[in-house]
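Hi R.,

Here are the chain sequences for the assembly we discussed:
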Amino acid sequence: MGAYLRRRTLQTIPTLFGIVVVVFLMLRMLPGDPAVFIAGENASPEALTAMRTNLGLDMPLHLQFLTYLGRILQGNLGQSLMNGNPVAAIVAGALPITLVVGGLALVLSFLIAIPLGAAAAFTASRGHGALDHGVMIAALIVDTIPGFWLALLLMLFFTLQLGMFPATGALDPTNPGAFLARLTLPVAVLAIGQIASVARITRTSVLEVLHEDYIRTARSLGTPEWSVLFGHALRNAALPVVTIAGLSFGRLLGGTVLTENIFALPGMGTVLINAIFSRDYPVVQGTILLYTLMFVAVNIATDVLYTRVDPRVQL
Amino acid sequence: MGFDPATLFRIETENVAFNIYSALTTYDAKTGAIVPDLAEKWDTPDAQTYTFNLRKGVKWQGGYGELTSADVLYTFNRILDPSTASPYRGEFANVESISAPDDYTVVINLKTPDANFLHQVASYHQGQIVKREAVEKYPDQYQLNPIGTGPFMLDRFVQNSEIVLTRFDDYYKGPAKLRKVTYRIIKDDGTAEVALKNREVDLSGTISDNSVLRRLSDDSKLTMNRIVGYAVNLQMFNMEFEPFGKPLVRKAFAHSLDRDAIIHATTPMTGSRSDNLLPEWMDVAAKDMPRYDFDPARAKALLAEAGYPNGFSFKNTGIAVAGGASEADLLRQNYLAAVGMKMDFEYVETAVYNQRRNNGDFQLAGRLLPAVNPDTILFGYLHPNNMAPKGFNSARYDNPSVTKLLEQARSTTDAAQRAELYGMAQKIAMEDLPYLPILQSSTYWPGWASVKNVVINKLANVDFWPVTIEG
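And here is the predicted structure of the full complex:
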């Protein structure tokens, strides 16, 4: 296990390097000059030249890249072009919000999707196709609802009609009630986006397991149905579900970008979008690097989780 | 983003700075007239030498003592210093020298007379006075630690989330009515609408979506604070692009559009008709301008006369927004196609658009230039010295008689005579038509009816000093 972790960690280095190069080059290939954005659309040519020199944007591209790479290796993500704040500080302020929203959404979606998928599989195996079809069609419909539209619908209903949850506002962790109320709608939007795929994969793999001999054995021994389903079938069907969980984390991160923007949450997604539009190169680079790190870490964690779920898996 | 007057721009930031800083002069919120601020009075014999007498006992925020002429000197020299890289340095291009004979007197000598110079020292961008000690205390971070002499102080700025201002109790006009002002940064108009209706916010300053504004105006609990026609939105013809180089083609373009119908159909809340480069409220805005009413037959005839009986194709460069071309753009495209002008769209991101527009790298583009000083608009758009990429003259317009009229007007101290000279320049410009005014833009700060004294000034800013919340 220790050797595996070391190997996997070393393997991520080329991945990270690749991402760093691609993001750096793609940003520079985008038309649009950060100096124009910072100095304002009414800036004079002299002001723009001075601005470019100040920001180091007048250096040849390869020098800019080497400087950037050297800084990353020292753990320095650089400074925002827009306001000179260290990228590390900007990201550190935004990351907890994204992690909390994303983490809650992940947990919520699994709490709903796995029992739903298992129930659908169970009814399907018993020949009650109606419930199974109903659940799967509902999942399909929910899956195709765009997140931003769902966000506005939830706001109209829960914020304006019922007055239950605010649509905007400060995030104050010292007031847990208000904090959770503020996060309910964004977490719901993100979770709903995940439910369909997790429910579907749970259903498929549980259905497969339900036809196995040991399930029949368990039933013939008089084990209660709920115990057969959740104790025996679900446990053995968990491997594909864990895989999907790892992959859907990427989709979830993507979802946080739009959701944060709509609900005016100052998380990583909002930071990223604003930085892209203002061509704030260091902030875009730093944010994407962090997203990459999170994604890679979750995938390693998924692999490690396999060994817990299925002792036959050796790393 | 930050609040250093030397470098800040964009309306949201300007509004924060407007409440933190003061300047020698400021604008009457309702009329746009110049009124005293830090300068109690001023004097100019010839529009070339300006002597300002500062108000005594004005306190700096953050315990930086009392305002003196040294602060004004420092501020203006800082703008002029190339290492500040202020985009507003050009606003002081006409300044010959600045001096402070005593603690409460500032004398500014200009290279050439400018009767509109009081606008350059008003509370906007380069005019807002900063404190040397405060600027030097945070060499790279002053913009996040601004210190002014205005009614509010910056308390907290959480990037992408909120800006909190607290009252400055020693403000020279007396403390503001509100103790605290919190700006919530909400990017989505739909979210802003929900936040306002749910009273998560008392006022909203950036909603421009006409259907959202329409819905808000139907809500009896809300007041639609607004300013009608604060600035003119116009189309800029690149006259180096062959067809647009011909005045007949530009006139044909103007006659082909039913501008009233387009406004009525797409932006009834935020637009009204305009036939001038200057907004109507300006005292030097000329009346009886050439109108270019909707007349497709005439447009066709003008095109044929210009040598384009079969029309031509061109590109309209704009900012990419979700959903592609705006309804107004599509309507314009239809009207133009009806007389043979085929308009293609080229949408780019804001950063690219600003760059291309500054360089004059387009065939047709738009601009909205909010200003109180008529020179900002007239010199900016029409004077050859401001030709792209140096200034706003993206059409590359150069008419010596207009240039002469503008320069004469600027150095004329007699108000009536100056208005007449400006009027003549405006009429010639509208005959030559390097720019076609599309509409006068209105802006809204919808808010709860109990929020009183919200007056939007001609630069679309709101002074929070007199604002109160009843009940």
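The mean pLDDT of chain B is 92. The radius of gyration of chain B is 23 Å.

Let me know if anything looks off.

Best,
T.
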